[in-house]
Design brief:
Radius of gyration: 22 Å
Shape: elongated
Strand content: under 5%
Number of helices: 8
Number of strands: 0
Amino acid sequence: MKIEAIIYETTKSIFNIEDKLRIATIFLFCFQLNAKTFAELLYTDNHELFIGKLGEHYKEYDIDLNVRLNDKNIRDCFYATLNKVKEKYDADRYYKALYENDPFAVVIDQLVNYNFDALTFRKITKSIGKQLEQRAGLPFLPRYSDGTAQINKNFNPQQ
């Protein structure tokens, strides 16, 4: 289930469309922003403080991240959404480890979010390709003039 479907399902008891949109905005914004922010949304002890700081940080972008957590129905829907999102998107507990600054999770996050320049990225992919060929015992793959492998799309390993 996508995060949008989770939000739709868990906010059905909210009749005000603005409140539904506020919950959707905070979850989608944090999810798209980066893994650390999303992890903090999922596991912080004080959501009101977290949302307030996030809203303050991004106030110049004219985005309203406030959620009326003082209303019981909205608060219940927010936490229902939070729990469903945790079930779906953090089954392996990666975001919890990232929130707790687990060294392995932090390194994975840094690698995933590192901005490689084109030349470095090409060198890395060539190196990985060579290592995979060597370890898998694959036959030599014909190469284009730039060094990238020509892959036979009709190859069937079952033959």
